[in-house]
Design a protein that fits this description.
Two copies of one chain form a homodimer. By secondary structure, the first copy, chain A, is of the alpha/beta class. The first copy, chain A, has helices at 8-17, 46-62, 66-69, 75-87, 100-111, 128-141, 153-156, 178-188, 237-240, 279-290, 297-317, 342-351, 375-391, 397-400; strands spanning 34-35, 94-96, 119-123, 144-148, 162-166, 191-195, 214-217, 232-235, 321-322, 334-338, 354-355, 357-359, 363-367. The first copy, chain A, has a seven-stranded mixed β-sheet, sandwiched between helices. Chain A has a four-stranded antiparallel β-sheet with strand order 9-10-13-12, with helices on one face. In chain A, helix 1 (8-17) packs antiparallel against helix 13 (375-391), helix 2 (46-62) runs antiparallel to helix 10 and helix 11 (297-317) runs parallel beside helix 13. The longest helix of chain A has 21 residues, at 297-317. Chain A is globular. The two termini of chain A are 39 Å apart. The mean pLDDT of chain A is 96. Chains A and B meet through helix 2, helix 3, helix 5, helix 6 and helix 10 of A and helix 2, helix 3, helix 5, helix 6 and helix 10 of B.
Chain lengths: 406, 406
């Protein structure tokens, strides 16, 4: 058997050999659903619900005392520690807080005074949020924003500014070489702010080893933290102490209960904690991360690559154009495929229990979340796609009806 | 019977006549607890848990489709509508998002270009978060921060800057005259950003009628939204369209699914939505607000005043110094009392089921949340205080032991 299944029997064999196979049982996915949308919102592992219920019970029974008795007061930091293990960071280098948008803003604002040039750079097809936040920060700070062509960050690092850059492109799934970028940045007084939203949980990330200084990311995709689960900030120990957040809330204060008029930031990434975190959502996230405890990053990456490689081979055999890198090492956890009739195809797939993601005008994205997916189920989902395309069964009125999109 | 009970029989009579009495049954407070800390973290009404469970179930069963099927996509806006009714705002003038810290930052940054002078003003004993955020915004924007003496905002409005001001002081509970401040601000090109954290749910707020333009506030105190429940932004219709948020996340975009590189803000306060909101925490908040449905603001204010006036009379009779205004109209929902031995007294109260709040060095705060408290129970709690003081039973080693504070 090869690592990449080329038959259903292969796929079944891959499931048998899968070191992550038992994790599937931590999820309670609806029957008959092949969930290829884990790159958008991951499903809940049972541990997420358990921690959420416990937090609700703590609120009910121990009321305000739960800030101490249930450990809410340092839950952001402890959850940050869980994430540190998933991105190759050290304890104290990650804190959970706010949203990706807010965290990108905080980090970019804090980085600007430390870069050689007070300029923000962002690629023109970077995730829209990153572009908006760069513009928002420019508006309030007076920093200039320069747009770079797609993939143009590396060549522009010699300008010595602050660069917002996704580690995995949200459309193509193309992976950036973090280590190479950081070497170039270090040579030119540039600082890169990595957006890890599409990278965490599917790549064998080694932020510290790769020399990354600053990053933020969401937790509701491959980390399965829940809808709108709070995001994270990574700030390497060698730079964290130099960073001043523009959003100094009480949770980032070294003595949050002293009620000082002046602000003394906490050590490390914890200074990027801001206001009171949403404990219920945070508890669910912390529980969800327990489902990843001890899962080797290398195994997560290998499985995401194997599943997506299998899918690429099959959709190419269906005559479809793959928009993601076919070389494994250059691809994150999802695969984008061009389909002019993508919208009704995705509806037809859904009618058969296969959930995928349509992006206008003509792209279908399949997410290959390695924690809960099974090879055989993905194989069957691709069978369904082949059948829908071959029979043109997507061309029925009910599959063309438009709902509000997500 | 007077409105302010002067005997336990009076208190029982007040409970009988209380138009809010039935709301107590919406809460499931632990037996034997007099919860006078609702100004810190309100207890959960049953509706909060119900909505939270429903959101968890939606995540489990309908997965990413819940953004549409469960209405998550506009939950921030709908919850904002629930809060609008509690502060005297119109629909569309309130959005729920982020924390108070982040919302103060967004509003102050957006207000600065519209004020006559690009200067932030904050009183020197204003809530620390508000001071920190003013300093953080100054650091990134270059705006100057000027400290005002306690209560000095009104007299400084002629400088025409942006003023951060609590509607109810977090220590003394003193109420600011919003209408008078706004008249003065309008005359001088000043903009006031009201922090409503200690005001919402206990005052008969009429933001619109009082001419208020901008406000933010938390939802976990008298609104019982849950630990770290997301906060809100109020932006009056006459000014919202002129405001540009420095944190333009996708949820504040007029076409969030168009994935435009450029940013077109939504109409009204909704432009202050930023990243993806924490849906689980938000669902609990929305449920909690249902417990206030139809509760007249005037009744909430009247009951908070009656309870706190009763408490003031009784602690004065115990020889204690009251640090809050004794005049009802000048007082919010809590009462601060000076007690040199406040720490062990609060522990001794807790041992008898009375939860109150100690603030170093010598202040005890009692919160009088009108939605769930009963007059007779508060009367009994004050009996317990009187007994503890008279017997000096607070002076036992176990009441002096220090735990981590909240």
């Amino acid at each position: 058997m090869r690592q990449i299944p080329t038959s259903r029997a292969d796929a079944v064999e891959c499931d048998r050999a899968d070191p992550l196979a038992a994790r599937h049982g931590l999820f309670n996915l609806p029957d008959g659903i092949a969930y290829l949308v884990g790159h958008s919102l991951g499903p809940p592992p049972a541990t997420a619900g358990a921690r959420l219920n416990a937090a609700m019970q703590d609120w009910q029974s121990d009321l305000v005392r739960s800030w101490n008795s249930a450990g809410w007061i340092d839950l952001s930091e402890r959850t940050g520690g869980q994430i540190a293990a998933l991105i190759g960071a050290e304890p104290g280098e990650v804190i959970v807080a706010d949203s990706v948008s807010v965290n990108l803003f905080k980090l970019a604002a804090a980085a600007l005074p430390l870069a050689r040039r007070y300029v923000l750079f962002v690629e023109e097809d970077e995730f829209p949020t990153d572009q908006y936040i760069a513009a928002g920060l420019a508006g309030v700070s007076g920093a200039e924003v320069r747009r770079l062509p797609s993939g143009g960050t590396f060549d522009a690092l010699n300008a010595g500014g602050v660069y917002l850059k996704s580690a995995v492109n949200y459309r193509s799934a193309e992976v950036a070489d973090i280590a190479a970028h950081e070497r170039e940045a270090a040579a030119h007084g540039a600082l890169i702010l990595w957006d890890l939203s599409h990278a965490t949980g599917v790549l064998d990330l080694a932020l510290k080893a790769d020399g990354a200084r600053l990053a933020a990311g969401c937790t509701y995709k491959y980390l399965n933290g829940g809808p709108g689960a709070p995001a994270f900030v990574y700030a390497a120990h060698d730079i964290a102490g130099l960073l001043r957040t523009p959003l100094p809330g009480w949770m980032g204060h070294a003595a949050p209960f002293a009620f000082d008029g002046g602000y003394t930031p906490r050590e490390g990434a914890a200074r990027f904690a801001s206001g009171t975190p949403p404990i219920l959502s945070l508890a669910a996230l912390s529980g969800a991360l327990e489902a990843m405890d001890g899962a080797p990053l290398s195994a997560l990456q290998a499985k995401a690559r194997a599943l997506s490689a299998m899918a690429i081979a099959r959709v190419q055999a269906m005559g479809l154009e793959v928009l993601s890198p076919v070389e494994d090492a250059k691809r994150g956890g999802h695969v984008s495929v061009r389909m002019a009739e993508g919208y009704p195809v995705v509806q037809a797939l859904a009618a058969r229990g296969v959930m995928a993601d349509f992006r206008a005008p003509d792209t279908v994205r399949f997410g290959f979340s390695p924690l809960f997916l099974r090879y055989a189920a993905v194989w069957d989902a691709l069978d369904a796609l082949a059948d829908i395309l071959a029979s043109k069964s997507w061309d029925q009125p009910q599959f063309h009806a438009r709902a509000k999109v997500t």
